[in-house]
C-alpha cells in the first residue's frame, strides 16, 4: 500500500510539474461528489439507530491527458458508508488508478480499468455508484487493432473487493470483427455483419478440506450482430465449465447462457424483442463470495427499468442459478388528428417482460446438481411486467404522461425469503409538465399502487418547481394507506431543494426512506428504512 501511494504521489507531482511548464495539448479534468446524511432514529418505520449520526460517501476523480499518455486516479472516502452500502467500504483511500498509453494500433493500460466483452455474459467490469457496485480489474490490459474492423483485447488481473482485491486471478481475451470495415468488397453493402468471440479463465487455489475444487474455470462465448436498414439482430451464446461455488451450492454442473435480440425502427414506429436462457451462470473470481462481491460476468435482467417511485417498488433481480426470460416492446407515434393523437400527436409504448424457472431434474449424484432440457421451461414464475405509456401534449405548454403497470413479483425467489409468495400489483401514474415560461416549469405526479399482498396499497403525490438554470424545489409523500395493520399506515415524506451553477450542484433535503430493494439492470442492493437530512454536492472541472 505504501508503494502504491508513493507511486501515485510521484505521478501527481510529475503531472503538475509538466502541466505548469505549459506542455501543449495537455489537459487535466475530473469531478467530485459528496453524499451525506444526518440520521434520526425512527423506530416507527424501523429506521435503525446510527451511532455516528452522520454518514457519507464521497469521491474525487482526477485525470490527466498529454499527447498519447493518459493517467488518472480516484480517491474515495466512506466515513462511514451510508446505510444500505456494504460496511466493508468503511475507510478512505485510492482504490482506483491507471496509466494508459495509446499509439497507432496499440493501447496498453496498467492499473485499474473497466471492460466488457460483448453483452457481458462472460465478462463485464463496471461501477454503479448508486448501488455501491464496483468490480474494477487491477492488472494489465492490451488492445490491438491490426487492420480496420478487427480489435483484439487481452487482460490479466484481480478484481476490486472494497478497499482490497480478491484472491482469484482473471485472464481474458476477446476479438471483435466488423466484416464491412475489413473486407473491401463488403464496404458498400447495405447489410453489416459484426462477429465476436471471448474467452475468460479464472484461477483460485483449492484450499477446501471438503471438496476437490477446480482451480482453473473457463468461460467462453461467441456473438453476432446483423444490421440492415432499420433492423438489428444479434445474439450471444456462452458456456462455462463446472464451477462449484457458494451461489450454486457447490455443484459440478457446467453453466450456459443464451441471449437473442431483434430490433426494428423507422420514423414513428419501432419494436424490440429479446429472449434469454440462463443456467448455472454465476461466475466469480472467489467461489465463496456473496452478494455483489467479485462478480466477473453480467446477466441482464431483460426487464424495463422503471423510474417512477411506485412502479419501482418491486424490481427484478437476475437469478443466476437458472431462468428463462423474454421481453417485447413496441413504440408508435400517433399522428395529429388521429384517434388519441389530439392536436399535437402522441407517443404510445407497450412493454411486456417475463422471467420464470427452467426445467430441473435432480441427478442420482447430488454433486452433479441436476439436468435440464434446453427447450423446456419450469413451472415457477419469477417476475412479470406489463406496462403501457401514453405521452402527449394537451396544449403547447402542458405535457401529460399516463402510465399503467401490472406486476407479478415472486418475493420468495427474488428476495430469497421463503414464505411470502407472489405480490400482484396494479399501478396507475399521471404526470403533468407545465412550462410556465422560458425559465420556470412545474411538474407533478399522481401515483397509485393497488395490491392485496405484502403491505397493501400505496398512494403518492409529487410536485417539483424549477427555475432554470439554477434552482429547483421538490417534495413528495408516499402513503401506505392500504396496510392491514393500522399502526403501520405510514407516510414517507421527502422535501428537497437544490442550486446549480454551471458544473457545480448542491442539494439538501429531509425525509423518510422506506425499506426495500434498489435494482439496476438486475443487480440489487437492500435499502434500509431511514429518517434524516441529506446533502449532495457535485462538481466537474
Could you characterize the architecture of this molecule?
With 541 residues, this protein is mainly beta. The protein has three domains: 1-35 and 59-101, no CATH class; 104-300, no CATH class; 301-541, Porin. It has three helices and 33 strands. It has helices at residues 2-20, 179-182, 411-414; strands at 26-39, 54-66, 69-78, 91-103, 106-113, 115-116, 124-125, 127-128, 133-134, 137-144, 150-161, 164-165, 169-178, 192-203, 216-228, 231-240, 255-266, 269-279, 323-334, 346-358, 361-362, 370-371, 377-395, 398-410, 422-435, 440-450, 458-467, 471-479, 491-501, 504-513, 516-520, 523-527, 530-540. It has a 24-stranded antiparallel barrel. A two-stranded antiparallel sheet has the order 6-7. Strand 21 and strand 22 form a beta hairpin. It starts with a helix and ends with a strand.
Largest sheet: 24 strands, antiparallel, barrel
- CATH fold call of the largest domain: Porin
Helix percent band: under 10%
Report the average pLDDT across residues: 93
In percent, how much strand structure appears in the residues?
A: over 45%
Shape: globular
Tell me the number of strands.
Answer: 33
CATH class of the largest domain: Mainly Beta
Category by helix and strand content: mainly beta
Low-confidence stretches: none
CATH architecture of the largest domain: Beta Barrel
State the helix count.
3
| Termini Cα gap | 28 Å
Amino acid at each position: 500500500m505504501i508503494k502504491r501511494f508513493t507511486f501515485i504521489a510521484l505521478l501527481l507531482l510529475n503531472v503538475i510539474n509538466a502541466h505548469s511548464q505549459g506542455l501543449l495539448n495537455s489537459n487535466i479534468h475530473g469531478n467530485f461528489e459528496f453524499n451525506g446524511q444526518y440520521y434520526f432514529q425512527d423506530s416507527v418505520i424501523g429506521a435503525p439507530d446510527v451511532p455516528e449520526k452522520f454518514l457519507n460517501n464521497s469521491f474525487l476523480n482526477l485525470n490527466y491527458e498529454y499527447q498519447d499518455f493518459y493517467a488518472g486516479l480516484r480517491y474515495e472516502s466512506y466515513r462511514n458508508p451510508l446505510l444500505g452500502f456494504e460496511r466493508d467500504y468503511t475507510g478512505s483511500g485510492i482504490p482506483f488508478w491507471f496509466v494508459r498509453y495509446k499509439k497507432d494500433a496499440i493501447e496498453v493500460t496498467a492499473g485499474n480499468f473497466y471492460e466488457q466483452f460483448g453483452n457481458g455474459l462472460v465478462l463485464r467490469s463496471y461501477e454503479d455508484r448508486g448501488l455501491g457496485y464496483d468490480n474494477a480489474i487491477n492488472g494489465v490490459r492490451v488492445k490491438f487493432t491490426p487492420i480496420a474492423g478487427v480489435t483484439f483485447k487481452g487482460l490479466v488481473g484481480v478484481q476490486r473487493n472494497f478497499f482490497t482485491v480478491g484472491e482469484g486471478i482473471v485472464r481474458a481475451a476477446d476479438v471483435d470483427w466488423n466484416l464491412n470495415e475489413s473486407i473491401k468488397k463488403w464496404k458498400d453493402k447495405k447489410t453489416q455483419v459484426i462477429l465476436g468471440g471471448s474467452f475468460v479463465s479464472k484461477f483460485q487455489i483449492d484450499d477446501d478440506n471438503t471438496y476437490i475444487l477446480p482451480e482453473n474455470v473457463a468461460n467462453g462465448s461467441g456473438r453476432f450482430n446483423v444490421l440492415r436498414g432499420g433492423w438489428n439482430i444479434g445474439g450471444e451464446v456462452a458456456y462455462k465449465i463446472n464451477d462449484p461455488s457458494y451461489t450454486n451450492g457447490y455443484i459440478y454442473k457446467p453453466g450456459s447462457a443464451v441471449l437473442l435480440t431483434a430490433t426494428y425502427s423507422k420514423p414513428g414506429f419501432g419494436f424490440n424483442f429479446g429472449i434469454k436462457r440462463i443456467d448455472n451462470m454465476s461466475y466469480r473470481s472467489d467461489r465463496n463470495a456473496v452478494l455483489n462481491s467479485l462478480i466477473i460476468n453480467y446477466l441482464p435482467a431483460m426487464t424495463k427499468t422503471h423510474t417512477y417511485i411506485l412502479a419501482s417498488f418491486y424490481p427484478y433481480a437476475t437469478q443466476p442459478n437458472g431462468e428463462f426470460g423474454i421481453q417485447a416492446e413496441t413504440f408508435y407515434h400517433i399522428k395529429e388528428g388521429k384517434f388519441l393523437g389530439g392536436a399535437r400527436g402522441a407517443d404510445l409504448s407497450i412493454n411486456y417482460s417475463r422471467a420464470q424457472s427452467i426445467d430441473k431434474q435432480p441427478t442420482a449424484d447430488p454433486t452433479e446438481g441436476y439436468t435440464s432440457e434446453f427447450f423446456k421451461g419450469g413451472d415457477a414464475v419469477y417476475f412479470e411486467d406489463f406496462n403501457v405509456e401514453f405521452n402527449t401534449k394537451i396544449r403547447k405548454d402542458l405535457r401529460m404522461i399516463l402510465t399503467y403497470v401490472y406486476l407479478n413479483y415472486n418475493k420468495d425467489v427474488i428476495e430469497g425469503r421463503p414464505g411470502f409468495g407472489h405480490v400482484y400489483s396494479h399501478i396507475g401514474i399521471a404526470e403533468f409538465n407545465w412550462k410556465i415560461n422560458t425559465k420556470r416549469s412545474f411538474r407533478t405526479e399522481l401515483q397509485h399502487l393497488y395490491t392485496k399482498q405484502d403491505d397493501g396499497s400505496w398512494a403518492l403525490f409529487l410536485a417539483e418547481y424549477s427555475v432554470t438554470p439554477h434552482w429547483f424545489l421538490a417534495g413528495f409523500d408516499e402513503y401506505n394507506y392500504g396496510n392491514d395493520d393500522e399502526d403501520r399506515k405510514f407516510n414517507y415524506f421527502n422535501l428537497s431543494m437544490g442550486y446549480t451553477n454551471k458544473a457545480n450542484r448542491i442539494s439538501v433535503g429531509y425525509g423518510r426512506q422506506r425499506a426495500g430493494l434498489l435494482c439496476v439492470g438486475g443487480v440489487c442492493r437492500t435499502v434500509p428504512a431511514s429518517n434524516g437530512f441529506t446533502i449532495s454536492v457535485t462538481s466537474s472541472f
